[in-house]
Amino acid sequence: MRIAHVISSINPATGGTIESLKLRNKLYKKIGFECEIITLDVNSKKFLKDKNLPRVRFSGKSIFRIINYFNLFRWLNKNIKRYDLIICDGIWEFIDYVVYKCAIKNNINYMVQVHGMLDPWFNRKKLKYFKKLIYWWLVQYKVLKNSKAVLFTSIQEKNLARKSKFFPYKFTEKIYGIPNIKNPFIKNKSNSLLNTYSYLKNKKILLYLGRIHEKKGLDLLLYAFESVIKFNKKIHLVISGPHKNDFFYQKIINIIKELNIRNYITFTGPLYGKKKWDAFIACDVFCLPTHQENFGITISEALSSNKPVIITNKTNIWKIIKDSNSGFVSDDSVKGIKSSLKKWLLLDNNKYNKMGLASKTCFKKNFSEEKIKLELKNILNFDN
Question: What confidence score (pLDDT) does residue 384 get?
Fold first, then answer.
């Protein structure tokens, strides 16, 4: 079977969507499927360095996005019959309308993976919600209604999407999670993070790994972190991830200065490959204090490294974490994150080790490739 994923950009700085595609590609290879990515990006060799990417076809030819949409339409209309299935990753962009038009015209099945973009959290700004509602009536609903299926990565995401106040709302819903891999370096003795920052070897490491973005709640973590330093002077916050030199990043820097906690924080920049996995191995606990998270690949990566996690109930897999006792869950507030940090610091060695084992079990049960294989089989074989 040949599958094409259509995505706006393969730039890793854009977030978890492209990361999920890399993981899906590994699964496709194992079951004998061919996968390609079609993107609006202008051909860029720096994006292709990642060996986990499938073949990438660049439809971008211009700095003007509208021109690239037309290029995508022309290319896809000409070549769409090469594929058995088209999956459009993301909504609220013209790419899914292009997929819809080309697929209907050529009688090719297509699906849309929404990647959390129907979460009610995004509707908190009324003007933005109203603009989306107009687009929903004119374009978006038609695209979703005529698809073979609209794909969600979890039941929680699907249930939240139904509360997003977009109407009409009637289409085929299916769950297609993200197949994650177990930490491949967990038994390695050499650790690049600890070798690079040797002063961390005697620290109790709290890891934040993700974009430095307003949605991720890093500002909450900083205030909560400062308030618990008095309980254990050895705790150290490692912040790993890309950022734009924008207002929120400057806000983070200003908060650190204001709280006078620079000596307790290390910025590593974005980490990939073994360096990323080594950060998970080196840490004592992983924290993602997000205001909204569709899935949280980094959460499952931490679990696969046998590490407890600290998350909010705005992550769509929070119930899995709570029920498995593999971490601490709170509201997305300074008070909530502070409470979780204190609970972590109060764990004795025995309870901490039990939580690490629970993390390992949780990963195997909920995020393994075998589970996602069953979901994939379901979405490919159901009658509609």
Answer: 44
What's the token pair of residue 236? 């150290």
Beta bridge partners of 255: none
How far is 201 from 89, CA to CA, in rounded Å? Answer: 40
What is the spatial distance between Cα 106 and Cα 123, in angstroms, rounded to a whole number?
35
All domains of the chain in start order, with CATH: 2-179+369-381 (3.40.50.2000), 192-366 (3.40.50.2000)
From CA 288, how far away is CA 274, in angstroms rounded? 20
Per-residue pLDDT reduced to its tens digit, 55-101: 888 887 777 878 888 889 999 999 999 999 999 999 998 999 999 99
Instruction: Identify whether the C-beta of residue 52 lies closer than 8 Å to the C-beta of residue 18.
Output: no
Strand ranges in 82-188 using DSSP code E only, listed in sequence order:
85-89, 109-113, 149-152, 173-175
State the pairing for strand pair 265-267/34-42. Answer: unpaired
Strand 327-330: give its sheet, edge to edge: 265-267, 235-240, 204-209, 285-288, 309-312, 327-330
The predicted-structure confidence for 130-157, as pLDDT tens digits, reads as follows 999 999 999 999 999 999 999 998 888 9
pLDDT tens digit string along 321-351?
A: 999 999 999 999 999 999 999 999 999 999 9
Tokens of 222: 């900083």
Mean pLDDT, the chain, whole residue set:
90
Token pair in block for residue 119: 């979460």
150-163 residue pLDDT tens: 999 888 899 999 99
Contact 186, 274 (CB under 8 A): no
Whole-number percent of the chain with pLDDT over 70: 98
Q: Which secondary-structure segment (H or E) carries 357?
A: helix 349-366
Contacts of 129 (CB under 8 A, 6+ apart): 122, 123, 165
With tokens 């819903």, the residue in question is 173
- Closest by CA to 181, choosing from 320, 72, 20, is 20
Distance in angstroms (rounded) separating the CA atoms of residues 279 and 268: 10
